[in-house]
Write a structure and sequence with these properties.
Helix 9 runs parallel beside helix 12. The chain is elongated and about 85 Å long. By secondary structure, it is mostly helical. It is built from 25 helices and no strands.
């Protein structure tokens, strides 16, 4: 009878895991693909020593470097969705391994191990957080999986790894350190566990203050999660709540085992825990659209479709649910021009009028793309610089550098174009594109024969120089 129950639970576990992975892929590819696009648009991951060292010497830098490595695959949305699914699937699997190893998690709690991944997806749908945040969770899980069983070795392990973990993951380390102490004192009294957790909090707070000062960083650089969010000072409350969620999920087997010791756990309790887990998953599913910033998401969606030249998709989106934001209206106008619903004169008149309205720069990447498409090269060059400076965490953007390369080639700034091409040559997805333009930098006469840059150059030479708009 027991073998039958175990086999049944194992089958349910495999089925849940498959459904979870498929759901996560569908979510990232078809529901929140705009998040992948924004992550890739707001960075330029370089395969060189300087870029790695720049990230290595800053708080949460390793997590940020790894997160940006993952985000570069979002250049192709399908590949990006697959890579993101692997990351979030690994988070769920490691969470389950931690629950099983440290606190004797039962199969009925398997669905509960999906909650940290789902909470992260819920946080990231408004594009406020980077992929460094999921990476910190993976690092924390690995910390717990390798903790020694013997108490003395476990304490030495934590003393050595805790400062490094705080530097790598920042404030997200705290719940994992608390979980580790609960495991170390698992055979002690409740008061001993509480005291160990309090001591861990004090040590973490002290290290979060001392480490940045010792390494000559602002004292708040680690406690505010630098690199985990685009604007950490405005989004830390959600990360603190996330830390509490992680703590509760991880110790849920301990709580259950505390209420029912060993084999005395009634079968009805397993059923209730299973129902609770599924209920939480359903709640997260309903919260996804409720907590989404509609206008912000619409702007990014239109930007994504314009970069992928999905003109029919833009018109369909505008027809089904018209957006009131100015950037969406401009993108809709350019789509109408490309499907020949309006002529070029109407489009350019609207574009010039729009460029005089400063609120259009609420999403500056759109204006850089639009001006480049329209052939206003100098204005596109200025807009690309503005777009790159608008990134909240001071990242560079491969998208912006791509426009700067094109503008420099058209305007005859060969040395500038060569500098940008060398930078893009250190990326994964832009390297071949950048290297294909090198002959035009070495031989400017080739620009005039190019089917796109040739007309742009002739238009540039015969129109007034408009660098500012």
């Amino acid at each position: 009878m027991n073998k039958t129950k175990i086999t049944t639970y194992q089958k349910w576990t495999i089925l849940q895991a498959i459904v979870f992975m498929l759901s996560v892929f569908v979510y990232w590819r078809f529901v929140a693909s705009y998040v992948l696009f924004r992550h890739e648009e707001w960075q330029m991951f370089l395969f060189d020593r300087e870029y790695f060292l720049e990230r290595l010497v800053m708080p949460c830098g390793i997590a940020r470097y790894t997160g940006e490595f993952v985000s570069q695959f979002a250049f192709n949305l399908t590949v990006g969705a697959f890579v993101y699914t692997l990351v979030f699937g690994l988070i769920q699997y490691l969470s389950w391994l931690v629950m099983k190893r440290l606190f004797d998690g039962r199969q009925s709690l398997f669905a509960l191990s999906m909650v940290p991944s789902l909470y992260l997806m819920l946080l990231m749908q408004n594009c406020e957080y980077t992929m460094a945040l999921p990476i910190t969770f993976l690092v924390g899980d690995l910390l717990l999986l390798f903790i020694p069983s013997k108490r003395i070795y476990a304490e030495i392990y934590l003393l050595v790894t805790l400062p490094m973990m705080l530097w790598v993951t920042g404030v997200v380390t705290i719940p994992f350190a608390m979980i580790a102490q609960l495991y170390v004192f698992r055979q002690k009294s409740l008061s001993s566990r509480i005291m160990s957790v309090i001591l861990t909090l004090l040590i973490c707070g002290l290290l979060l203050t001392i480490i940045p000062l010792w390494l000559d960083y602002p004292a708040h650089s680690m406690s505010k999660g630098e690199g985990l969010a685009y604007e950490p000072s405005q989004n830390m409350i959600s990360i603190y709540i996330y830390c509490v969620v992680v703590l509760l999920v991880m110790i849920s087997p301990l709580i259950r085992n505390r209420l029912f010791s060993g084999d005395k756990i009634p079968s009805s309790t397993n059923v209730r825990m299973f129902v609770l887990s599924l209920g939480l998953l359903i709640v997260f599913a309903f919260l996804v659209p409720v907590t989404r910033d509609t206008e912000k998401v619409d702007d990014i969606r239109y930007d994504m479709m314009m970069c992928h030249h999905d003109w029919q998709g833009i018109l369909k989106q505008n027809s089904n649910r018209p957006s009131q934001t100015l950037s969406a209206q401009v993108v809709t106008m350019i789509a109408m021009y490309h499907v020949q619903a309006i002529d070029k004169e109407q489009y350019l008149q609207f574009l010039v009028k729009t460029g005089q309205q400063p609120q259009f720069r609420s999403i500056p990447f759109v204006i850089a793309n639009v001006y480049m498409d329209a052939g206003f090269v100098n204005m596109a060059q200025r807009a690309a610089f503005d777009a790159m400076e608008s990134i909240p965490n001071y990242n560079k953007s491969a998208h912006a550098f791509k426009w700067l390369v094109e503008a420099s080639i058209v305007t005859g700034q060969s040395k500038v174009a060569d500098k940008y091409i060398r930078l893009l040559a250190s990326t994964l997805y832009y390297r071949l594109w950048a290297e294909s333009l090198s002959p035009m930098v070495a031989n400017p006469q080739l620009v005039g024969r190019h089917p796109v840059y040739g007309p742009m150059q002739r238009f540039y030479k015969t129109t007034p120089d408009m660098f500012f708009y």
